[in-house]
Write a structure and sequence with these properties.
alpha/beta, Aspartate Aminotransferase, domain 2, Aspartate Aminotransferase, domain 1, seven-stranded mixed β-sheet, binds pyridoxal-5'-phosphate
């Protein structure tokens, strides 16, 4: 690279990534092949439209890449014609969304009239901004009907959820979160959607890699729409997919129209190629092993921190994600743990070479800028080959750092 300023900064970032222990739950490390696709000449090409229906010439190779990416996405989740299982042939996928947020907006644009209701988990309980929060376009164009978790169990309370959905009649219900460590009961969400006449959208951004590796319940049996980022547990480039059930409602056609021309112009075809590469990798037995290890490692992290005396939200994890209450109401617990704010915890850990993010816990009494907890994830370090014994050591280090003994 001739641009030495940027080259130096890329090198510096590469070094930083190598040096730290990365517990950011939404990050991962892609393969060299994915990087190669991202850095390819495909970025030069305009391809507005869809395969064989483009607004520009010269798309014969691009069409093949987009078709292959779609095929791989459907195959990975057993949705392709001829796949095993009840969902084969029943789904369409759009591979063009530039990232998770625009993918979610495209779904609402397609299926929720302006001013309509999006029932989503509130941000402070684990939802994402694009599930209808007021600072996001999704809370300005549409109205959020918020829901959350039970105060005691910190798990979704379906009785409350159902009563609210039936009373509010949202156009769409969103399941799938940003800071919720537990397995989601998609069947129960289906029942709530049916009882309230809503479309059921699952945003599986966080746990898509675990669904691919069959280590987390699949939403496809119950959802009408499934969105996902590709760059978290699924270990692909920054990008997103929208799956739509094919039936008389023509959700698939509405989604395609909303993505282009509704939301976007030309797709980023270097990204689409990178997604295709990652989806092929996710179909391997090595990826399946990784998905299992991700879960094992997160469990070790949750168990060890609990043993030390930290409070793990909901008492554990069924995924890659662990939410730790480091503040514990500002009191030191019986083992001397607690009374560390989320910001303090994250800052101290970063100084010790462990990268996490501060995070609100359900019913947090502290402000979002300095909440009561931190969110940890095991995917990135699992990609680097770490196993249970390594995560045990990581938990020990976290405990020491948070107690000020590092
Ligand atoms: C559940 C969920 N949905 C959507 C997104 C948005 O993805 P992006 O940052 O690619 O816009 C995120 C990002 O963290 C997320 O956690």
């Amino acid at each position: 690279m001739k641009d030495t300023q940027i080259k130096k900064l890329i090198e510096a970032e590469k070094k930083r990534q190598k040096k730290v222990i990365n517990l950011i739950a939404s990050e991962n490390y892609v393969s060299k092949d994915v990087l190669e696709a991202l850095g390819s000449e495909l970025t030069n090409k305009y391809a507005e439209g869809y395969p064989r229906k483009r607004y520009y010439g010269g798309n014969e190779n691009i069409d093949k890449i987009e078709e292959l990416c779609r095929k791989r996405a459907l195959e990975l989740f057993d949705l392709a014609e001829g796949s095993a299982g009840a969902q084969a042939g029943k789904w369409h996928v759009n591979v063009q969304p530039l990232s998770g947020s625009p993918a979610n907006v495209a779904v609402y644009l397609a299926l929720v009239p302006p001013g309509g209701k999006i029932m989503g988990m509130s941000l402070d309980q684990g939802g994402h901004l694009t599930h209808g929060h007021k600072v996001s376009i999704t809370g300005k164009m549409w109205v959020q009907v918020p829901y959350g978790v039970d105060k005691n169990t910190e798990i979704i309370n379906f009785d409350e959820l159902k009563a609210k959905a039936v009373a509010e009649k949202p156009n769409i219900i969103v399941a799938g979160f940003t800071a919720y460590p537990r397995a989601i009961d998609f069947k129960k969400f289906r029942e709530v959607a049916d009882a309230s006449g809503a479309i059921l959208m699952v945003d599986m951004s966080h746990f898509a890699g675990l669904v691919a590796g069959k280590e987390y319940p699949s939403p496809f049996e119950y959802a009408d729409i499934v969105t996902t980022t590709v760059h978290k547990t699924l270990r692909g480039p920054r990008s997103a997919l929208i799956f739509a059930k094919k039936d008389a409602r023509e959700l698939d056609k509405k989604i395609d129209k909303a993505v282009f021309p509704g939301m976007q112009g030309g797709p980023h075809m270097n990204q689409v190629a990178g997604v295709a590469v990652a989806l092929k990798e996710a179909k391997t037995s090595a990826f399946k092993k990784y998905a299992l290890q991700v879960k094992k490692n997160a469990k070790v992290l949750a168990d060890e921190l609990t043993k030390f005396g930290w409070r793990v939200v909901s008492g554990g994890t069924d995924s890659h994600l662990v939410l730790v209450d480091t503040w514990m109401n500002g009191e030191k617990g019986k083992n001397g743990r607690g009374a560390v704010t989320g910001k303090e915890a994250s800052d101290r850990l970063e100084k010790a070479g462990i990268i996490v993010n501060k995070n609100a816990i359900p019913f947090d009494a502290r402000p979002p800028a300095d909440p009561s907890g931190i969110r940890l994830g095991s995917a990135a370090e699992t990609t680097r080959g770490k196993k249970e014994k390594d995560f045990k050591k990581i938990a020990e280090k976290i405990d020491k750092v948070l107690r000020g003994e590092w």
